[in-house]
Amino acid sequence: MRLSVNCFGVFLFSFFLLLNLQTLSLTGWMVVEESSVKLYHFFSLLFLPCLFLKPKDTTARVPLFIFEYFVGITLISLLLFLVYPFNRLLINHLFVFYAFFIGYYIAGILPQEQIFNLLQKAALIVFIVIVGKLFFHIPEIKRFLKAPDGHPDIYTIYGGGTNLEATWIGLNTALFINRKKLFYTLLAVTLVISVIYASRVGVVIAFLVAGFKFVSANTSRKERRTIIFMAMLAVISFFIFIDLENLASKIYTLKRFAEFGDSSDKGMAGRFAMWQYYGTALWKSKFLGYGAGNGIYAVETVSGTDYPEDNLHNLYMQVLIEFGVLGFILYMIVVYNISIKALKSRLSNPLAILILVYFIASLIQFRGTDAMIWLFIGLFLKIESNKERILVHVQ
């Protein structure tokens, strides 16, 4: 039993760490994130021999709504690929189901305290790496702050650039809601990094995590009163002592918030350029979809334009256009069931907050094949299932 626990504990720590090092492949750090198979893909295979060390009483029956979703989108895609081009993103969907199963299985063996401890240690390493590499990019940061435009040219350990890196560290901050001092320290670090990266979504995610932490059962009344007092003090200070218009002109990230949706907002302009053809593309498919990974192909076919993006920057729109109405319903059942469990937990489970923020952030990014999120979902569902089973036995 001890051997199996050690095996799964070491694996979870290492696998989660490698999932954060998304641009690391067998041949080294990748410049183009999609250009190679990642190191965590190969490492995940080590989970299979660990299964031989499992306790005899361990069971891992995947929840039916999860199983139906992955089977559904796989069959839908295979049928649609008879008409539309095959896209390898279907393989990514199968891999994230594997990541989900890994999390679900391990949470049936390791106690939740050990799981959170392992995730926190790996996340701390990631924070240290990200902060450390900023020192190597000081010349670029200085250049960007003097003449900001878009995002600074900084190498990231996450695929998708600085915006996604700010997103992921913001999500990882939720893992520390049960460690008050460390949580607020990392939250401040996340906000600073998001400002340096000029990442609006990074700032929004940081505040969403903080907001859910505020209403979480883990937050005491005294802590809530302190937060309210500090927030009111900050707001009053801003209005009395700070010229917001002048501040926004000096801090590029605030300026980007002020420009949201207007003609100078290049990020949203790129999204609107794609979204204007979305309805036509969906109608042409008879609401049946185009298959996994073919969301961009769909709007490009209708518009006659090649887009640099690899996703629609709205996960719900992407699920609908790739898997049709049926696939969309299956996904929304997943979102609904997980959200209900998260709210029933009174957000005392750090993973509940992290997953809920992901569902919200999916309105402006992500493409549904994020292995780290599905690992979290697997861990979360099994942890909550374990709690329910204990309550039934007690009653």
Automatic annotation (TrEMBL):
It holds the Pfam family Wzy_C. Its main location: membrane. It is a multi-pass membrane protein. It is found in: Membrane. The keyword Ribonucleoprotein does not apply. The keyword Iron does not apply. This is O-antigen ligase-related domain-containing protein.
